[in-house]
Amino acid sequence: MTRSDVLVDADWVEAHLGDPGVVLVEVDEDTSAYDKGHIANAVKIDWKKDLQDPVRRDFVDRHGFEELLSARGISNDDLVILYGGNNNWFAAYAYWYFRLYGHANVKLLDGGRKKWELDSRDLVTEVPERARTSYKAQQQDTSLRAFRDEVVAAIGQRNLVDVRSPDEFSGKLLAPAHLPQEQAQRAGHIPTAKNVPWSKAANDDGTFKSDDDLRKLYADEAGLEFGKDTIAYCRIGERSAHTWFVLHELLGQANVKNYDGSWTEYGSLVGVPIELGAGR
Amino acid sequence: MTENSSGEAIIEGTVTAGAAPARVGYARLLNDDGEFVAEVPLGEDGGFRFFAAPGNWTVRVLAPGGARAEETVTADRGHTTTLAVSVAAPAG
Questions:
Q1: A257-275: pLDDT as tens digits
Q2: Contact state of B51 with A177 under an 8 Å Cβ cutoff
Q3: Mutate to test the interface with A, among B35, B59, B77 (most CBs of A within 10 A)
Q4: Among B9, B1, B14, which Cα is nearest to B61's?
Q5: How many domains does chain B contain in total?
Q6: What's the per-residue H, E or C state across B5-27?
């Protein structure tokens, strides 16, 4: 797999944003960002309203995903290019989500919205009209998704990588510092987890570092055992989707799962072990 | 530092590019090991806000045209630290 199988750059997007068969999709944490301005021809997916079940803590079901993509005018043959703010946190989350439901023809715009803005490229407010399609999704591919009991059983057995900031990992903070400090009942991390903050995989402008730098970061510096199964987590599973993308899509590690329950689930479970401090 | 009633350790401020608010740009929060902790896009008024923990932090601002600025601050629970940051205005 080469990097261009999963990533495109801004020049490519500018050259192809009018192509039939290519759909740009913006996914942000701040769901109003798209309304203020987006890349021409991009449609919006709201990671909360569109991708989450409104009652249960879980994703929309297969039919729900089909309905969403059909309404957005995305067809099974389309190449979907995802981008967004927060260095592509939610775009990477959407990428993983699209792959979960079997849409293989998907790529990320390297650098996301931030790099596009810092390069002073054009943003527009026109919302494109796309004809409705009849999208068909696969059953969820749970080889990509980890659940609670499997994560507890993975302690001491598989690589666990906690991609939150060092202060969340140690228990000093409960949430990223751009959010009020709340959420899980307890602070800390899953015992044996290695802390590799997601941000170390990206440059200041939001683009991913080179494969060599990434391999060095995860295998050499952090001590992740390449070849062993890996579960990545953060607070709600969106930053860890960014790291899932790095390990599974860029570095080609075979068995990598994203634990979307993440710390908001684990840190509130009764009876599970928790570790505080900087880790070993 | 001023007191706030939220109990949070808040670091906030505004960024200007030349004489005007910087409406396009990002503020990053780094801990005292220089590790990235959080990032927010600047508001319409060039504003940003972080909810940190007590201690020393660095705010790094990124803006178009390669503009950069950095400030180190101390945060405390129940207090707000306010910064005024300026970056070079984009050319042209």
A1: 999 999 999 999 999 999 9
A2: yes
A3: B35
A4: B14
A5: 1
A6: CCCCEEEEEEEEECCEECCCCEE
Tell me: do A255 and A164 sit in the same domain. yes
Question: Of these residues, A146, A234, A246, A251, which one is catalytic?
Answer: A234
Verify that A156 and A262 share a domain, yes or no.
yes
Residue B47 included in any domain: yes
- What is the gyration radius of the CA atoms in chain B, in angstroms? 13
Name every chain B residue with its beta carbon within 8 A of the beta carbon of A165: 31, 35-38
Residues of chain A contacting residue B41, judged by C-beta atoms under 8 Å apart: 30, 33, 85, 114, 117
Q: What is the pLDDT of residues B34-90, one digit of tens each?
A: 888 889 999 989 999 999 888 999 999 999 988 999 999 999 999 999 999 999 887
Global confidence as pTM = 0.91
Q: Is residue B69 part of a domain?
A: no
Strand partners, A43: A25
Question: A82, A103, A118 — which closes off a domain?
Answer: A118
Residue in chain B closest to A178 (alpha carbons) equals B50
8 A C-beta contact, residue A108 and residue A135:
no
Say which CATH number the domain at A222 has. 3.40.250.10
CA distance B75 to B53: 7
Residue A130 lies in a domain: no
Interface predicted TM-score (ipTM) of this complex, two decimals: 0.81
| Residues belonging to chain B with any Cβ–Cβ distance to chain A shorter than 8 Å | 6, 8, 24-26, 28-29, 31, 33, 35-41, 49-53, 62-65, 90
Written as one letter, the residue type at A171 is G
